[in-house]
Amino acid sequence: MAKIKKKVRTITVNADKCNGCRTCEIMCSAFHAVPPYSSNNPARSRIQVITNRLEDIWMPVFAGEYTESECMGRNKYIIDGKEYNECDSCRAACPSRDLFKEPDSGLPLKCDMCDGEEQPVCVKWCLVDALVYEEREVEVDEKDVKETMTEMEVGLESLVSKHGFQKVMDTVARLSKKG
Amino acid sequence: MRYAEAGYYLEVDLATGNIERVATDPKLMELHLGGLGTSVKVHWDRVPPETKAFDPENLLVFSTGLLNGTPVFSANRTVVSFISPQSGTLAYPMMGGFFAAELKYSGYDKIIFKNKSPDWVYLYVSNNKVELRDASHLQGRGAVETQELIRKELNDPKAQVAAIGLAGENRVFTASIEQSRSSASRLGGGAIMGDKKIKAVAVRGTGDVFLAHPEAFMREMQGVTDYIKYRWENPIKDVMTILSGIGSPQEMLHTDEKWHTENFAWGNARTRRRDFWTEEIDESWSKSQHGAVKRLISCYNCPTHCGALISHKDTPRYMAKCFGKLTYAMAAYVDDLDFSWKILQRATEYGVDSFSTPQILAFAVELYEAGILTDKDFKGCPSDKEGRFFWLLDRVARREGIGDILADGVYFAARKIGNGAEAFDHNTIKKHEQLPIKLGTLDPLYFLMYSTNEKISITQMEGQWPQSAFPTMEQRQEFVRDWPQIPDEKFKQIVLDWELRGEKSIPYFPTPDMCSEIVDWMEMMHNIDDAVGMCCGMSSFCLKPPYHIHNYPKIISAATGMDLDEAGLKQIANRSRNLHRAYNNRLGIRRVDEKPPEDHWKKRFPELEEELLSTYYTYKGWNNDGIPTREKLEELDLGYVADDLEKRGILKNGQN
Ligand code: SF4
Ligand code: SF4
Ligand code: SF4
């Protein structure tokens, strides 16, 4: 099978270095405002710092794919004497929690690695290096290369799963008539 | 659209339960910025001077700063203002942590509480949903415990909760308001909350804060960031470790406490232990601190992590910051730092401030040892130093027995106890406990700051000016070489001329004129910080900080869209400062009140002190009694204040 080279952009989280300042949330939301930096609202951030202060939990989590249904798992884990809720580390926006959803529309958010920026802004502004950016070239099977979904696609997909394809189409048609 | 600010106050009438969202006049920002500035204006307009601290008319205002909720690093202060039960003046303790930003995202610049609630309540603010909720189940709970319980109740780990403990409920004058890793602690804010029967305020917001000129704003942010990194890599030379960097004093990080333990006084501001810091102490204190500090944590949007999660043996966990680590141990003459972590936990749950409270406890011990308080007053008290302090702390927080008298602070307790107790009240200014520092020769700069500032407590008034002269010319030159933060080049010459001994040393140098300008500059920076909600550790309480008079106007302009230059910003700071002054004048503050304790410095210079005060008053545009003149007030668009002061006979018509 044909192999092709692909650039992989990742962020490594070093949660032990995190001081819980939430600057990453602030800057992510500001960067994604339109126009960029014109407003700021951590609730719109694609990175959320999960916190339980007295338990010593400050854990930055990036928004991942949207899931249509809530999962069945609600386990608790004890790691290093700290109790984590399974939900805490989940990257998905799901029906049962508000995390990684636009506060106004409820549409899911997904980390886009700040596409187009030299370096993700959350990494850039985390001055204590709890977030570290990595860019690697990897060889992958051609068939595994999927286009990453655009923001609009993520939103539409979730609308479709919520309201059904027809209803979304009807709405679009109605809106386009209004011009 | 409103930029940086939300444009709404939340008005809560505790007597009727009525809650209103009130739009504010955009002009207020131009006149007073926000934060402390606009809060003082609210109090001036609405709380008449006859009001006493525990009257229902006393307003309790929780305020965000102008830049809270924007990406400006370290702008996270909540200013809490009210007439203090202790000083009788307009107090404004501040807390870092996470509260102010959350309130701004909820869409409010301030929460204004008036009147008193008949039953215990907590206020829950979440965007448009605002409600007073029953708090009867929280009564008696600790301040940290309450925050956790409310977060659980709301099922929202990101809700930010400011709460009082038992001390606040019992209206102890040193009661604090605790929130996350911070507290608004001075002058009895917790007591006012308790008096109004507000157990806590919980906020959670998911709205936007807008910026007027994003590109210009981000340019300034980049500059600030570059500077923070530069300072981290290049600590200031020839000053003590805690002053060499940025951020609030890093008491949770540094373990070397030679300077504090040997220069501050132990007990009730009594004894300096000049050779306290031995190798064994160094070792045992480092071990204790490293064992107790689980993680260093920041306030909202700040990289500097000055606070810590404390997990000491079987003591329940809590968060600590700054100086409380030393104050209880030093006040109790306990040489084991483990004691600090234990008592600080209980003090935090009770919600009492860690500057005044240990002084009050030490004062009680002193009175007992002097036979003024007796075995009857101390019935049931253990005899060891540690046990005694825990016992006294319990009595104060619960207002039980002798604790009921002590709970009003050293000044009032001394007068109530009588029998010579007044002589032991030797460390208060305007009825408020000061840092336990008793030094050699009068320091003219500190004299002015202690005496005249409305914050009353010195702990956050100083900062930008070096604490003493540098011994060598090389060190002075090095210090002034790279000092863009100063408002005027002439300050460099003062540092160069300033000697440790001889003609150009304290108390006569810097001269009263120079002192006036230096103090005015520091005060101005504090005023701006308190209006924009900046942590003074990143600005006015810091040598060579990231924020200063030259970049502030640009940052504020870019954030708000206001057309502001340095002169304009100075004018606003001056306006708010003078309004605050006039307010406290209206509440009775005069020149006679502006006095550091008698034994504050071993060598005092009464004539020089009078000259310092007079020179400073003149510089500020105040009359000989410390009251702003009509001319000064009019220059600051405060003609209405002059009218009011004249009407009340505080300013005499036509004369200064
Ligand atoms: S900016 Fe860095 S230190 Fe701050 S919360 Fe985010 S990951 Fe943690
Ligand atoms: S990489 Fe960019 S989009 Fe993703 S969380 Fe960080 S700032 Fe947000
Ligand atoms: S410098 Fe320290 S106290 Fe100030 S905001 Fe930052 S973490 Fe908080």
Automatic annotation (TrEMBL), chain A:
Known PROSITE patterns for this protein?
A: 4FE4S_FER_2
List residues of the 4Fe-4S ferredoxin-type domain: 9-39
- Listed SUPFAM superfamilies: 4Fe-4S ferredoxins (SSF54862)
Highest taxon in the source lineage? Bacteria
The record's InterPro entries line, in alphabetical order, gives:
4Fe4S_Fe-S-bd
- Protein name per Swiss-Prot or TrEMBL: (4Fe-4S)-binding protein
Biological classification of the source? Bacteria, Pseudomonadati, Thermodesulfobacteriota, Desulfuromonadia, Geobacterales
From TrEMBL, chain B:
Family according to the record: Belongs to the AOR/FOR family.
**Record keyword Iron-sulfur present:** yes
Record carries keyword Transmembrane helix: no
Q: Which Pfam families match?
A: AFOR_C, AFOR_N
Q: Which UniProt keywords apply?
A: 4Fe-4S, Iron, Iron-sulfur, Metal-binding, Oxidoreductase
Needed co-factor(s) = [4Fe-4S] cluster; tungstopterin
Q: Which residues form the Aldehyde ferredoxin oxidoreductase N-terminal domain?
A: 6-207
Protein's name in the database: Aldehyde dehydrogenase
What are the GO MF terms of this UniProt record?
4 iron, 4 sulfur cluster binding; electron transfer activity; metal ion binding; oxidoreductase activity, acting on the aldehyde or oxo group of donors, iron-sulfur protein as acceptor
Q: Which SUPFAM superfamilies match?
A: Aldehyde ferredoxin oxidoreductase, C-terminal domains (SSF48310), Aldehyde ferredoxin oxidoreductase, N-terminal domain (SSF56228)
